[in-house]
Amino acid sequence: ASGNDINLKYQDLAFKLNFPTRKAGTFSIWGLGLIDRNKADVLERSEWETMGDRSSGYNKLDKLAGGLAHKYVLDENTYICSSLSATYSKDRSLADLHTDDAIINVADIQNSRWNLVFNSYLNKKFSPRHTNRTGITITELKYDLDYKVSPYLGLNKPMEQISKGSGESTVLSAYSSSVINLSNNLTTSLGVTGQYFTLNKNWSIEPRVALKWKINPAHSLAAAYGLHSRRERLDYYFVEQIINGKKESNRYLDFSKAHHFGFTYDWNINQSLHLKIEPYYQYLFHIPVEENSSFSIINYEEFYLDRILTNTGIAKNYGIDITLEQYMKNGFYYMITASLFKSKYRGGDRIWRNTRLDKSFLVNLLAGKEWMVGRLKQNVLSVNGRLFFQGGGRYTPVDEGKSQEEKDIVFDESKAYTKRFNPSINGDVSISFRINKKRVSHEFSLKILNVGMRTGMHFYQYNERTSVVEEKDGVGLIPNISYKIYF
């Protein structure tokens, strides 16, 4: 079968306005809105081969965001920046499976969220050697979540409630960071960040420190350490299940945390050419995993979660990034980045494995050229390109026997991420033209993504007609046309 007929509708709009004043500082207003609709129709019955062929669905996403920012200079050494922003998003996803005699609703996901974020910080230069920035962020979350999904799609089972919650929660964050010039060539930065999540009363205190030694005008070395934390998606906290007769939930999942160690060598080869070498090591802990399973949230990429998790997982990432950058010179620039890395994790079964994103290497080449055109050479014609070569991602092999039983793809999680896709090469190109006038500028651009027609995505599907598991590659050329106005 050729696949479902999919109808896509997408629109977005963004703006940012700046209003400087004589005495009250500078105000900025920005906004973003998008509408996304897509509908997949079921194929003719004679074309049914896979579950996707006999499925239909509808996805609807509306998103609005806007904010007001203000910067006020108190004196030549002190200024304060504050912002207030709000975001609203509402999405609805429906999916049906068609059989010879019925239509079965297998997914109904509704998600409405309001976020109100207040951020403010004070930047103070105490002396030529010491500058401090201290601030707070208050994020108010209002949500209404309702996730229903069929647990066994191939067997045409009805939906089950996997996540449901509504209410309000707050994330409180505060930080302070100082940059201190210990000498003309030695600089350190010291800081601490704290956050508190009212939904489950979890909190975190995170120190950060860095030291930079400027050997001479061309060479410098730096080292840094930081403890970082991350909360999970809101719907994950509202997953509930009955396990051994007891109601379990993810409500009290702690923050995922990581110790980051980084080193940097900078070499300004000349005024326009720069080399940077950055080895790093990251140790991740408190990672949500499923007990007695290879599952870890760091590998997860599905639209919903239907598992009960605990913060007993760990992981580690280490590698080196090398960047050679030619700054804009005579209208031409380029940047070459090469990364060698390793990524491992330990799930709820206490076994170390490769992560899904352990691709081993990535080479990225970015280059572009600008020409000043027009009668007064005030307009800009720009051509840019990106070429990247990367190792294959890891994947979990399919359990052929269970897939046959459930008539759907079932992975063998005991062998999680033991397989690897082939390396891939791809590229993007873009061309833009900017017309600069006295009070306004217009920019038109065309971008073409995935010039090599390879998205790097791979997937499996179960052929119900032949009872065979089939491997498919994602392909797709993505054009994008945009217009921007500056005034």
UniProtKB/TrEMBL annotation:
- Has keyword Plastid? no
Query: Organism's domain of life?
Result: Bacteria
What's in the keyword line of the UniProt record? Cell outer membrane, Membrane
Chief site of localization: membrane
One GO cellular component term: cell outer membrane
Q: Any idea where this protein resides? A: Cell outer membrane
The molecule here is called Prevent-host-death protein
